Write the structure tokens for this entry.
Amino acid sequence: MRGNPEAHRLLAPGNLRAVLELMANAPGEWTPIAGGTELMVAHAAGRLAARNLVSLWGLSELRFINVQPRSIAIGAGSTFQDLRAHPAIVEDFPLLAKAAGWIGAIANQTRATLGGNLVNGSPAADSSPALLVYDAQVELVSARGNRTVPYSEFHTGYKTNVLAADEILLAVHLPRRFAHHRQYLRKVGTRRAMAIAKVALAGTALLEGAQMREILLAGASLTPFPARLYRAEDALCGRTLTPELIRNARAALLGDVASIDDIRSTAEYRSHVAANLLEEFLRSLMLEERKS
Ligand SMILES: Cc1cc2nc3c(=O)[nH]c(=O)nc-3n(C[C@H](O)[C@H](O)[C@H](O)COP(=O)(O)OP(=O)(O)OC[C@H]3O[C@@H](n4cnc5c(N)ncnc54)[C@H](O)[C@@H]3O)c2cc1C
């Protein structure tokens, strides 16, 4: 059944302070709405439980990309089009720029925000794997003040997170330390465009000769919520890249992957493809290392 607009109230106070005051005065009563590309779909399907919506759309305090010498801060209200078009994101964080180009169609990308993608918390979200392998921090804000947590600790379960009832996501901070890391991101979906990930794998790796100095791995649709693939990382970190190590890493990855069977794919297919993607990334590293 379609949603009834009269069952909801929408306020657009127009500045961040007023939004936070509203949420502080009635914690849990107000649901933020940014681009609305998740919430309006839920509304159209008659699934939107929130009665009171407070708009974040157009707040300048949330829509910015600040480039500092050691990090980049991205406001949660930045759209995926903002990310794709920003030279510093394209240059320093190409995996995020690539993922931004995967969100729906161009029309979605001009409306869908980074904050909405993260807070919605889908295990298939396109931006999450890139942020995890760039070691992102997320900054949260409420009328009580600001706090920052590692993005790898933001999600606590399927579509749950550490946000308090009066808090919103303010910004994502990315350390500019990946210039010398090899970077990988591949998504497998039903089509090349407008497809939710059956599986995706992201990785950043720093090599010294054939030795893996650092590796960060994350996937989409492999775990109940966006998370790093720590077992596979541990199997690789500090070791020399060999065909045997790749076999071990494939096996370790299967320990990270939760069985997700849904309409898009089976758990068995996902595990197999994820291990293939990891092998593709690691083999590309070996090849580049041999050439250098
Ligand atoms: C046709 C279509 C195609 C899509 N394709 C993809 C795709 O390929 N890949 C993909 O990952 N997603 C896809 N999506 C999903 C969606 O576009 C994204 O998740 C988008 O980033 C959501 O952002 P939004 O601003 O529209 O969120 P909204 O709908 O406004 O909000 C989503 C959730 O986040 C909360 N929220 C938003 N901003 C904040 C904030 N700053 N602080 C606290 N809470 C906040 C809201 O309360 C809500 O719970 C698609 C959606 C559509 C309709």
User: Anything to note?
Assistant: The chain has eleven helices and 13 strands.
